[in-house]
Amino acid sequence: MDRGIAKRLIVPGPPVQRGAVLFLGLALLLAITAGALSAAQTTSLELRMSRNSLEAALAFRAADAALAEAEAWLRTVGDPADVRVYAGGVRYGEIVAWRDRTVWTAHGQTAVTPLPGVVEAPRFLIEWITTYESVPGTLVDVFRVTATGVGSTQAVVVRLQATYARTHDGATRRLGWVELES
Fold this sequence. Notes:
The protein has 182 residues and is of the alpha+beta class. Helices cover 35% and strands 27% of the residues. It is built from two helices and six strands, in the order H-E-H-E-E-E-E-E. Strands 1, 2, 3, 4, 5 and 6 form a six-stranded mixed sheet that branches. Strand 3 and strand 4 (138-150) form a beta hairpin.
């Protein structure tokens, strides 16, 4: 053993910190926050889309109920001379009476079928289009029914339009229907 040589002990000092872990932690926290904000925004958008879809379905159901009520009226009464029928006296396609507010005021009918959740009762307008003879002795009246349904807010309106043929013995059939642009 060598006593003359002093042994030096090298004691390590504290490590030099350069902030890499702090920077990495902040970057990771920023990425997680951005992901959470994106998820919240996507959820909010999906919620609005779902609400709009529900509103459209409610308005469609209201318009369809009014259309069914008008069809029932056509089956039971179906008289082109009835005061509730707009008899423009022109052929199909020459007039769009359903766009005229005065026609709705004079001839439009409010459906009596109660619908929960709608802001106003659905309405329908029955137009007589023409009467023709399908086979000798069989007269057929053609009607166009336009129905308007509103959802739980005034912002969503659905308009359905159907064309019906009704023989004078009361047989009624739907010839076609379409959803109109609002």
